[in-house]
Amino acid sequence: MSKRLAVIIPYYNETPEQLQFAVHGIAMQMGTDFSKLEVVMVNDCNPETVVDESFTSRWPMLDMKLLQTDHNAGCGVARQVGIDNTDAEYVMFLDADDRYHNVEYLSAVCRVIKQGRYDIIMAPFYSDVCGTDYYNWITHGGLGCWMHNKIYRRQFLIDNELRFHPDLKVHEDGYFNTITYACSDRTTIIKNVGVVWCNNPNSTVRKNNSEFFTGEMHTFMRAQCLAIEWLKEHHKAYQGTVCDVVIHAYVFLHQRLMEVEPEKVKLCEDIVAGNLAQYWDSAIEAPDVNFPTYWGDSLTGYQQAYWKSGEMVAESFPQWLERLGMRVPELPDVRTFLNKVSTA
Questions:
Q1: 197-251 confidence digits (pLDDT tens)
Q2: What is the C-alpha separation between 249 and 245, in angstroms, rounded?
Q3: What is the mean pLDDT of residues 15-30?
Q4: Which of 66, 94, 212, 262 has the smallest number of CB atoms closer than 10 Å to its CB?
């Protein structure tokens, strides 16, 4: 009998002792019919990590499947192996070093799944932030590129040929969610906080004081270029994605909170001027984009994340576009949006 939900856990460096916390959090879920749940653990081809029946037997109530990738290809490929080897109606993902926030999350997810109305179900989540003298939780909404707070209808993924890109070891989540968002308007966000994105200082994103965010921005942009190519090939609207990536690149490269190395700045700008410029004119002219409004809404959101309220940057967005040889669209006064945020 096919399952209603599969929880896919990719892992690589984690030991069985570390993995047990993620699995135990699933086994502790209340109000969940475990006969309709499958836990799929995918080893990203690390021969030193041994997870076998002696591990799975600790949770006899769970139907657990152990898989391995053909080669070390990153968590995106490992997740795809999990999707390809389950017949569950819906799939969701849990990173090996993360935890469920409460014991009622999966029951809340299953109640929505029973409705059979949605291709993508999203939930808010917490990330923990630690320092030498503080510990805090930050609340995140359902949208964004994260994988651990989303549930996907498997047949929707199959019908639309939605797969993780085999060449992306990082920012595979941004690519995947960009193309999935474009293929469905049957999405919902539930209120239940689901996952705690734990502060693992050895993880790809958090190690070396989270330098990933500045050091891999060009990789994010390349992943988005691959997503744009996929959208064009599959005749999906791509113009909004082009606008968002260009605006995000401008704001990120001009923000003051994190220092971006000059060579990384050049890599990002080369992608904008080389890869994205070919789509730029059609993107800013697209009727469904309404670029002046799109720019203002995006800037307001990015302002809260990257810029101090009311601050102006030395190089304006039009000046930056001109320097990169790209057409400058008509824009409202940037201060209108900066002031909107500073007085909110």
A1: 877 666 665 555 545 555 688 888 999 999 999 999 998 999 989 998 898 888 8
A2: 6
A3: 94
A4: 262
Backbone CA torsion sign across 24, 28, 31, 35: positive
How confident is the model over 11-28, as a mean pLDDT? 93
Contact 36, 3 (CB under 8 A): yes
Cβ 110 vs Cβ 131: under 8 Å: no
**Do residues 266 and 274 touch, judged by C-beta distance below 8 A?**
no
Distance CA 178, CA 170 (A): 14
Q: Is the dihedral of CA 341, 342, 343, 344 positive or negative?
A: positive
Q: Pairing relation of β-strands 125-130 and 135-140?
A: antiparallel
Q: What tokens does 132 get?
A: 């030498």
Paired tokens of 312: 């102006």
Structure tokens of 141? Answer: 């909404």
Q: Please state the separation of Cα 257 from the chain's center in Å.
A: 22
Token match 């490992």: residue?
78
Name beta bridge partners: 195: 100
pTM: 0.88
* Contacts made by residues 259-262, CB under 8 angstroms, sequence distance 24+: 259/214, 260/214, 260/217, 261/214, 261/215
Cα–Cα distances in angstroms (integers) from residue 87 to residues 44, 53, 218, 266, in the given order? 21, 22, 36, 45
Give the CA dihedral 251, 256, 258, 259, nearest 10 degrees. 100
Segment 245-265 shows an average pLDDT of 80
pLDDT at 279 over 90: yes
- CA neighbor of 313 nearest in space, from 299, 296, 326: 299
Rounded to whole angstroms, what are the CA distances from 120 to 17, 125, 167, 248? 32, 16, 24, 24
